[in-house]
Fold this sequence. Notes:
- By secondary structure, the chain is of the alpha+beta class.
- The chain folds into 2 domains: 5-75, 3-Layer(aba) Sandwich (Glutaredoxin), CATH 3.40.30; 86-244, Glutathione S-transferase Yfyf (Class Pi), Chain A, domain 2, CATH 1.20.1050.10.
- Helix content is 59%, strand content 6%.
- A hairpin with a 2-residue loop joins strand 3 (54-57) and strand 4 (60-63).
- The longest helix is centred in the middle third of the chain and has 22 residues, at 132-153.
Amino acid sequence: MSTPILWQFRASHFNEKARWGLDWKGIAHVRRSLLPVWHLPRMLWLTRNTQTPALELDGEMVPDSTRILERLEALRPEPALYPADPAARQRAVELEDFFDEELGPHIRRALFFAALDHTDFAVALFTTGESERTRALYGASFPVGRAFMRLSMGIDAPRAAESRRKVEAALDRLERELAPSGYLAGDTFSVADLTAAALLAPAVMPPEFPYAFPSPLPDSVVAYRDTLAQRPAFSWAAEMYRRHRGRTAEVAA
Length: 253
């Protein structure tokens, strides 16, 4: 098998879901990092879609974090992400789907609404790891990129307020669903735990996240994080990162 290539955004939580799966499985891979909005021609050429992540695997392009995790499980069954018990497996997959739909897009919208007006922070967030020249060029074009993001992701005050309510509801369910083991589907870490924790990462900002978040945070971002920080789900996600995110399988190109 040739070395898989993950086409990604560094800061994105759905991309983190795929990255974590590769690292959890210990599958050596190369990461090709793209910049939001600038990524559009490349992803359209690669996948006929505009979304990341996408995994290039032996000449095949596998889009979508859920499909990527399914392929990784088939490629390398151990350590497992999907429980062996059928009932626990069904529960894990159902919860993965729930968090993909009811948490991921909404926490992104809520955080982007808080962050995008702060140009220096937003540009630093999206261009982590890039050269000074790239950061400068991206910053110069960012007003156009910001307008595109707001339009394409529905980032405005009414929809951000609704997304904040959706996030709270998703965290309510996460906290209800936790088993005495501390996991969501059975007694071990599974795709449900990985998904929920990864999708919360932009708010939790755990130290184990593979890329540094810019500092200082804008007051609006701090204020939104503070509304979540006392939730058991917030500390649970930090604990999942502490227990299960401490290794990388990335290799040099």
